[in-house]
C-alpha cells in the first residue's frame, strides 16, 4: 500500500544547507509539514551516532571524494563545500593518533549527501538524512507505507515462484494475515536518488571533467527485531505492479538487487549487489540470472563491499541501528515500549553508486523485500512496492482552438497543435525526439516553433514513423512546447504524437518510462472543429411547354440553376436534386435529376464556392394540370391551365460536414400570356 508518511517529532532536522555542513551549531527546528502528527512535550532526545573502531572503517582514505559534491535539499541539488585530502588526512591522523573513534557516516563516505549512520536524524555537521527529506514524494524518491493490520493492508508474497531468481510475473501475492514470523514484516520502505559530483577521471572510462554519479539511498523498517534479518531491495527498469494475486512487469538487464543480511543474531553484516542477467550467464540463481557485482562482509552493524574486478570498494554500503533511535514517521513495532522509538535492528538503510556499477539507467519501480533465508534463491516473504521514476518523459497534445482555417483552393483544413514534452522524472534525459503518428498521404504537419524559437523555414515532419529532434537535454522537472502546423482534409483533425529520449547524451533511446503517446481528447477535438455554415442557392424558371419528340406528348421544361455562394466559405458536395411535380411542394419520392446537374458540372458533384451558377434544363410529361382552370359554367378555360412543380437540392458542406438544402417552385402555363393574342 503506497502512501505518504505521517511525520512525527518537532525535533526533526531542517533541510541541509552549507552553513549546517560547515558549522556544528545547535540543530535548528524545521517548519512542520502540513500533514504531520506532532508529539507533545519537549523535543525528543537525539542519540549520539554509534562509534566504531578504526579497523572497522568501510572507506579507506583513497576513496574520499575530491572537488565538489552535490547535496540534496528537498528535490534540489546544491553544492557541498570541497573536501581536500590534506584536511581529511590530518583529521583522520589526529583521530587515530589520539585513539579517537570515527562515526559511521564518516566511515562510509566523508562527503555522502545522505548520512548512512543507523538513524533518521539529520545530525549537525554531516549530510542530510531521512527526517529532513520527508515526505519523499517527488521525482526520484518514494516512501511506501506497509504497516501490518489493523494499521494498513498487509500484502505479502505467496507462492513457490516468489524468488529473486524469477521474473516478477512468476511471483505470487496474497492479502490478509500478516507474514510470519514477525521479523519478516516490513512496516515502511523508502528510497531517494541523488546526483553527486565526482572528480574528473575518477575511474577508467569516466569523463575527464567533474561529473555526476547517480547514488541511490534506500531503507526499510520492520515490525519485529528478533533474529536474523534477510532483506533485499530491487530497482527495476520496467514498472512492477500488483495484478490480482500476481504481478506484471518483467525484469530487464541492469535491474539491480541489493541484498542486506544480518546473521548470527545480527553480529555480522553482509551486503551483496546483483544485476539481472536475462541470458542466464550470471553467477547466482537457478537459472543463473543474477550476476554478482559487489560483495562485502563485516562484524557489526555497518558493512561496505570489498574491492573486486567489477566494483571498487565502498560502492555499496548498509547499516542498521545498533541502539534504540527516534521515530520520525508512523511506525508501530511489535514491542511499542518506549513509545515513539524504533528498537535496535528495526531500521535499515544503505546507499549504492549506480553509475560506478552499471552506468546510466532509468529505473521505474522500487521494491523492498524480506526472505526466508540469506540465499538468493530463498522464498520471498514480505514486500513494499512503489514507483521510483528516475527518467519519466510525458507528452500532451492539444489543438489551438483559435487556429482552424479552411483553405477552399486545396479543400484542406489548417490547424495548429501544441505538443508539450515534460520530464517529470529525477534527472535529465537526452536526445528528446517525437514522431507524429497521424501523418498520411493526405495529412501533413510541419514544426513551426520549438520552445521560443520560430522555425524558419518550417521543419517537415515527413512520414508517421520519422523521429524529429526536439532538444538535446531536458532537465528533470522541466518541459518544452513544440508547435505544429497541419494540413488535413479532416475537420476536426485528431493528432497523435509519441515522444522518446535517452538516459545519456547520444545514447540509445530507451523504452521504459522514457516514451509516451498522447492523442487529443474528444473535448479538445470538438473545440477545434471549424464551425462554418454552408450555403446553397437554387432557382427554377419555366422554359415552356413542348412536344416530346419521342412520345409526341406535351412536356414541361424548366431551367434550374444551383449556386454555391462565396459566403459559404467551402466546397459543397451535392447529394441529390429532385423534382416534385404538382403544387404540394417537396412531398413523395420526387424525380431524381442529379445526373443532369452532374453532366452540366463537368461530371462532378462538387460545387466550389465561387458564386457561379451551374445551369441545366429538365423536361417532364405532366400527368395532370393544376386545379382551378375551369369557368363558372363548368367549361375549361385554356388560358388558366398551368403545370406546377418544385425542385430541391441537398448538399453537404465540406468544412462544416453539415447538410444544407434549398428549393424553388415554378409553373408553366398551357397558353402563355402575350399582348398580341387575339380576343376570342
UniProtKB/TrEMBL annotation:
Transmembrane stretches, start-end: 86-108
Biased composition (Basic and acidic residues): 33-42
Organism classification: Bacteria, Pseudomonadati, Pseudomonadota, Gammaproteobacteria, Lysobacterales
Record bears the keyword Membrane: yes
Organism (species): Lysobacter niastensis
Keyword terms of this UniProt record: Membrane, Transmembrane, Transmembrane helix
Protein name (record): DUF11 domain-containing protein
Region (Disordered), start-end ranges: 23-42
Domain of life, per lineage: Bacteria
Amino acid at each position: 500500500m503506497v502512501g505518504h508518511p505521517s511525520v512525527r517529532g518537532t525535533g526533526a532536522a531542517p533541510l541541509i544547507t552549507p552553513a549546517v555542513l560547515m558549522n556544528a551549531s545547535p540543530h535548528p527546528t524545521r517548519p512542520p509539514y502540513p500533514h504531520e502528527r506532532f508529539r507533545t512535550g519537549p523535543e525528543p532526545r537525539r542519540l549520539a551516532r554509534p562509534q566504531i573502531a578504526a579497523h572497522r572503517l568501510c572507506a579507506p582514505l583513497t576513496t574520499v571524494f575530491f572537488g565538489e559534491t552535490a547535496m540534496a535539499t528537498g528535490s534540489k541539488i546544491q553544492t557541498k563545500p570541497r573536501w581536500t585530502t590534506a584536511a581529511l588526512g590530518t583529521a583522520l591522523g589526529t583521530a587515530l593518533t589520539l585513539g579517537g573513534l570515527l562515526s559511521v557516516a564518516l566511515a562510509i563516505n566523508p562527503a555522502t549527501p545522505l548520512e548512512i549512520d543507523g538513524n533518521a536524524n539529520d545530525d549537525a555537521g554531516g549530510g542530510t538524512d531521512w527526517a529532513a527529506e520527508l515526505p519523499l514524494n517527488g521525482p526520484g524518491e518514494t516512501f511506501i507505507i506497509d504497516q501490518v493490520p489493523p494499521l494498513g493492508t498487509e500484502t505479502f508474497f505467496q507462492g513457490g515462484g516468489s524468488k529473486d531468481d524469477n521474473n516478477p510475473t512468476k511471483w505470487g501475492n496474497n492479502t490478509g494475515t500478516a507474514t510470519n514470523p514477525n521479523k519478516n514484516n516490513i512496516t515502511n520502505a523508502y528510497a531517494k536518488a541523488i546526483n553527486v559530483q565526482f572528480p574528473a577521471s575518477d575511474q577508467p572510462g569516466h569523463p575527464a571533467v567533474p561529473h555526476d554519479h547517480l547514488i541511490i539511498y534506500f531503507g526499510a523498517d520492520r515490525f519485529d527485531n528478533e533474529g536474523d534479518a534477510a532483506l533485499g531491495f530491487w530497482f527495476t527498469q520496467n514498472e512492477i505492479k500488483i495484478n490480482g494475486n500476481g504481478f506484471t512487469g518483467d525484469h530487464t538487464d541492469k535491474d539491480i538487487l541489493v541484498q542486506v543480511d544480518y546473521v548470527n543474531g545480527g553480529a555480522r553484516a553482509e551486503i551483496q549487489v546483483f544485476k539481472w542477467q536475462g541470458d542466464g550467464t550470471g553467477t547466482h540463481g537457478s537459472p543463473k540470472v543474477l550476476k554478482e557485482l559487489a560483495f562485502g562482509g563485516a562484524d557489526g552493524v555497518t558493512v561496505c563491499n570489498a574491492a573486486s574486478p567489477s566494483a571498487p570498494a565502498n560502492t555499496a554500503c548498509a547499516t542498521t541501528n545498533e541502539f534504540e533511535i527516534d521515530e520520525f514517521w508512523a511506525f508501530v513495532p511489535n514491542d511499542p515500549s518506549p513509545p515513539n522509538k524504533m528498537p535496535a535492528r528495526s531500521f535499515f538503510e544503505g546507499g549504492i553508486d549506480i553509475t560506478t556499477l552499471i552506468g546510466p539507467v532509468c529505473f521505474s519501480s522500487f521494491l523492498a523485500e524480506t526472505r526466508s533465508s540469506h540465499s538468493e534463491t530463498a522464498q520471498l516473504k514480505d514486500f513494499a512496492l512503489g514507483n521510483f521514476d528516475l527518467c519519466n518523459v510525458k507528452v500532451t497534445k492539444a489543438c489551438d482552438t483559435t487556429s482552424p482555417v479552411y483553405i477552399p483552393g486545396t479543400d484542406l483544413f489548417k490547424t495548429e497543435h501544441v505538443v508539450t514534452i515534460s520530464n517529470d522524472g529525477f534527472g535529465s534525459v537526452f536526445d528528446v525526439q517525437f514522431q507524429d503518428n497521424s501523418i498520411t498521404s493526405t495529412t501533413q504537419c510541419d514544426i513551426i516553433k520549438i520552445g521560443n524559437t520560430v522555425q524558419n523555414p518550417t521543419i517537415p515532419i515527413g512520414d508517421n514513423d520519422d523521429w524529429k529532434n526536439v532538444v538535446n537535454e531536458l532537465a528533470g522537472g522541466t518541459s518544452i512546447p513544440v508547435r505544429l502546423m497541419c494540413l488535413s482534409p479532416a475537420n476536426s483533425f485528431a493528432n497523435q504524437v509519441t515522444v522518446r529520449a535517452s538516459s545519456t547524451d547520444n545514447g540509445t533511446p530507451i523504452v521504459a518510462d522514457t516514451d509516451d503517446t498522447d492523442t487529443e481528447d474528444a473535448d479538445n477535438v470538438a473545440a477545434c472543429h471549424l464551425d462554418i455554415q454552408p450555403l446553397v442557392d437554387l432557382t427554377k424558371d419555366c422554359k415552356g411547354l413542348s412536344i416530346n419528340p419521342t412520345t409526341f406528348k406535351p412536356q414541361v421544361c424548366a431551367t434550374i440553376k444551383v449556386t454555391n455562394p462565396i459566403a459559404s466559405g467551402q466546397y459543397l458536395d451535392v447529394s441529390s436534386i429532385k423534382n416534385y411535380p404538382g403544387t404540394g411542394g417537396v412531398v413523395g419520392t420526387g424525380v431524381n435529376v442529379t445526373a443532369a446537374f452532374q453532366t452540366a458540372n463537368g461530371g462532378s458533384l462538387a460545387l466550389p464556392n465561387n458564386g457561379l451558377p451551374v445551369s441545366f434544363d429538365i423536361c417532364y410529361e405532366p400527368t395532370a394540370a393544376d386545379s382551378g382552370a375551369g369557368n363558372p359554367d363548368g367549361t375549361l378555360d385554356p388560358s388558366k391551365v398551368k403545370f406546377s412543380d418544385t425542385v430541391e437540392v441537398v448538399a453537404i458542406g465540406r468544412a462544416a460536414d453539415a447538410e444544407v438544402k434549398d428549393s424553388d417552385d415554378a409553373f408553366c402555363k398551357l397558353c402563355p400570356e402575350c399582348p398580341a393574342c387575339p380576343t376570342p
